[in-house]
Design goal:
By secondary structure, the protein is α+β, with helices and mostly antiparallel strands. The chain has helices at 4-21, 36-45, 69-77, 147-172; strands at 83-87, 92-95, 106-114, 124-133, 139-143.
Length: 173
């Protein structure tokens, strides 16, 4: 039969091994910032930590869909099309199939994926899909994101820049 002290020392040794094992992820010191604040920020950006007290300079500021100029400009640009999915937190807008006339049996579907909140050309990925259906209801879907995608990106960026300018002028007043 094992004594109490032996059991206790076995448990403490096991706990010590677990604690020391968790320290092995320090990594290469050359790739880590020397400044503590920079290191904390890098860990948070990489999803390796949490920030309990928040960022004091942004206290009271909330990023809602109505305050994101790219999001608003995209919705305004696509307002003539029915939306199948609009997920602000996921950063995606997908329209339903749309056709302005039924004579040519062609429909269009647009998806916009947001990569950034900044108003830049690489902040959006726009895909344009066409669906051609024959009389027998066999449909062929093709990705034709070329010129129309570029036109939509340009139009959305122009609107977003105008919204941003309006918001800045409102904040100055």
């Amino acid at each position: 039969m094992l004594s109490k002290y032996f059991k206790l020392s076995l448990i403490l040794a096991f706990a010590g091994v677990l604690i020391l094992n968790s320290c092995s992820g320090a990594g290469d010191a050359r790739k880590r910032p020397a400044n503590v604040k920079d290191r904390i920020q890098k860990n948070i950006e990489e999803g390796r930590g949490i920030k309990l007290m928040g960022n004091k300079k942004n206290v009271g500021e909330f990023d809602f869909a109505s305050s994101n100029e790219l999001w608003r400009a995209s919705l305004d640009t696509l307002d003539f099309m029915p939306l199948a999915l609009a997920n602000y937190s996921g950063g995606v807008i997908v329209t339903d199939w749309y056709s302005d006339n039924n004579e040519n049996n062609e429909s269009v579907k647009i998806s916009i994926r947001f990569l950034s909140n900044e108003i830049r050309s690489d902040a959006l990925v726009i895909k344009v899909f066409y669906k051609n259906c024959s009389i027998q209801q066999t449909c062929k879907i093709t990705d034709r994101s070329g010129a129309l995608s570029n036109e939509l990106t340009e139009k959305i960026l122009k609107k977003a820049a105008l919204y941003e300018k309006e918001d800045k002028s409102k904040k100055k007043k």
